[in-house]
């Protein structure tokens, strides 16, 4: 069990550029979640997948955001036409059971939009 | 709708002193409850969880929390603070039934430990 991994750990981009983040969950976990955390706040839910199906999206996930999990393993989160308000830590989590639903978090990708 | 309130944004204790971090939830039925810790520039690590079993839950690093339905609370405690406990702590809830699987987090409390 190598844990949840995210790549890159840090990303600096200019406003208007597109960025893509990757999350690799714990191998046997079928559920994968994306959260966004801004400074001084707790993580806020963005979206989640069960296998390859995207089951819920938050209203925070504007049209500029898209997430995929094509084969039910790794996931990508793309932000198009980045804005300064997108600067945040993007956290990925995974879980393998809905009974207790303990989520394991990755180290996050810190995005800075200049 | 579920919500979590963590009173105060910063708690400072002396090394060896009691740690008490407060969490209150608001939901129509008792949810699953979690405490996570976050060290600088890292992801969240689960400290402990309440899942409708024992109301006093023991976690890692000497932390424990007690679920009190009458007070809608799930406060986190540790008898004796250590310098390594300095971090940010988040309380989170999840409604145990239904299709909604997301965690709802509080704003977090920063714990400082004075030598």
Write a concise synopsis of the structure shown.
Chain A is mainly beta.
Keywords summarizing the entry:
heterodimer, A: 114 residues, mainly beta, seven-stranded mixed sheet, four-stranded antiparallel sheet, 11 strands, 0% helix, globular, B: 115 residues, six-stranded mixed sheet, 12 strands
- Structure class of chain A: mainly beta
Provide the low-confidence segments of chain A as ranges. Answer: none
Reported for the largest beta sheet of chain B, the result is:
6 strands, mixed
Tally the helices of chain B: 0
Globally, the shape of chain B reads: globular
Ends of chain A: how far apart? 36 Å
Mean of pLDDT of chain A: 92
Mean pLDDT of chain B: 90
Protein chain pair with the most extensive contact, residues per chain: A-B, 28 and 27 residues
Low-confidence stretches of chain B: none
Tally of alpha and pi helices of chain A: 0
Residues in helices of chain A, as a percent range: under 10%
Largest sheet of chain A: 7 strands, mixed
Secondary structure: number of strands of chain B: 12
Percent in helix of chain B? under 10%
Multimer state: heterodimer
Count of DSSP strands of chain A: 11
Gyration radius of chain A, in Å: 13 Å
């Amino acid at each position: 069990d190598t844990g949840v991994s995210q790549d890159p750990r840090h990303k600096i981009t200019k406003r208007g550029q597109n960025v893509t983040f990757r999350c690799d969950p714990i191998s046997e976990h079928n559920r994968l979640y994306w959260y966004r955390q801004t400074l001084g706040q707790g993580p806020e839910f963005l979206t989640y997948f069960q296998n390859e199906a995207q089951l819920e999206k938050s209203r925070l996930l504007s049209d500029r955001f898209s997430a995929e999990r094509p084969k039910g393993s790794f996931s990508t989160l793309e932000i198009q036409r980045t804005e300064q308000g997108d600067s945040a830590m993007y956290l990925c989590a995974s879980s393998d059971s809905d009974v207790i639903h303990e989520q394991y978090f990755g180290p996050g990708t810190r995005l800075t939009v200049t | 709708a579920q919500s979590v309130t963590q009173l105060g944004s910063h708690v400072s204790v002396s090394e060896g002193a009691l740690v008490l971090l407060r969490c209150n939830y608001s939901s129509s039925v008792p949810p699953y409850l979690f405490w996570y810790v976050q060290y600088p520039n890292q992801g969240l690590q689960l400290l402990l969880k309440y899942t409708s079993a024992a109301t006093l839950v023991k976690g890692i690093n000497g932390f424990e929390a007690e679920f009190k339905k009458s007070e809608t609370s799930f406060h986190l405690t540790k008898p004796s603070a250590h310098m390594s406990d300095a971090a940010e702590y988040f309380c989170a809830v999840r409604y145990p039934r239904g299709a909604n699987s997301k965690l709802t987090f509080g704003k977090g409390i920063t714990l400082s430990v004075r030598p």
